[in-house]
Amino acid sequence: MILLITGSRDGTSDLVVRSLGNKNVFRFNFDLFYDYRLEFTADEWRIVNPENLEISSRTIKTAFWWKAFSYFIKEADDFIVEEVKYIFREIYNWCRIHRKLRGNPPDFHNKLGKINILSIAKKYFSIPHTLVTLGGLGLERLVEEGIVAKSLTSGTTDTSKVLFTTRVDKERVSPKFPWYLQNLINANFDVTVFICGKSQFAYKKSREDLVSIDWRKDQDLSSTKREWTRFDLNSDQSLRIREFCDAISVDWGRLDFMEVQGQLIFLEFNANGQWVFLDYDNADGLVDHVCSYLIDD
Amino acid sequence: MLVELITPLMLATAPTTVVMPEVEYNHKTQQSEVVAQWTGVPTPYTKTPNGTRTYSGNGAPVDSDND
Fold this sequence. Notes:
- The complex is a heterodimer of chains A (297) and B (67).
- By secondary structure, chain A is of the alpha+beta class.
- Chain A is 22% helix and 27% strand.
- In chain A, the strands form four sheets. In chain A, strands 14-13-12-15-16 form a five-stranded antiparallel sheet. A four-stranded parallel sheet of chain A has the order 2-1-6-7, with helices on both faces. Chain A has a four-stranded antiparallel sheet with strand order 8-11-9-10, with no helix packed on it.
- Chain A has helices at residues 11-20, 78-97, 108-111, 114-121, 235-247, 286-295; strands at residues 2-6, 25-29, 37-40, 45-48, 54-56, 62-65, 101-102, 130-133, 147-150, 166-168, 179-183, 189-196, 199-206, 229-231, 252-260, 263-270.
- In chain B, strands 1-2 form a two-stranded antiparallel ribbon.
- In chain B, β1 and β2 (31-36) form a beta hairpin.
- The chains are: A alpha+beta (297), B mainly beta (67).
């Protein structure tokens, strides 16, 4: 049985449960922790849901963490929330120790990070000049033609705003703030490659109609328009991607690139690896590949 | 002439919000089910909007990109 550690409102998890079959997966929703019964000792653990569906340290085959802490527990004291988080993390760590995990841990970027990943990626791909700076140190490294500011964390401000990739004038960036800056790339396409086990699924999206620099800002959230087109990587691109994934020890996630005159320029590695938006109607069978990956020993 | 400096906070913008339908989680099917459709968004219902952003239960974005 697969242990899916997630939240109750997660649509991707609904899709996976539906495809795997209800009897083959145990969905452990962080935000509904009060619905479950759990025992966890030094010898074993067992979780039971209100319908008496059960998973244990003896019946688990694989475990997959999917955005569990992106969902919030209503009306719970922060102390209780942290205690529950501890339990979820420790179950996940048990799965790691017993080599049951699929996908990447939720704290993947805390252990590696965007710049360290770039330093590995440059062995396999072209990368843009990139700078993380405090106090404005190193700004002279970036060329004048165009600079963009990005977010390291993708978090929200106190006013629920976010920093999309935005063009900035380097003479105007305040040295009193942290900055993640990159030279602007004038690309024809955004490219993203979903890694699922040994398979690579490459998609591209024209930048012609983008209103802003960042495709994330212009995402069509309606699921009515297929925004990304699947294409085949050439053998050299595929080999480099495989070698890069080996170098950072992953078999899951998404690599973002920009395509300039046929050449892929590496931007970042997305450890969470969201994939439904690429194939929301399952025309390419991504959900089937994901389920096979989750089940595979 | 003094150049006005910019900060990351000044560049931040409010992402698109979505109207979330009312859903209830079913422990038997282990899936969430719509109990009341939203109005005003002429699209099929999906709990994970077609994108990489995460939304809270009331439709407010909680990140720019949960990847």
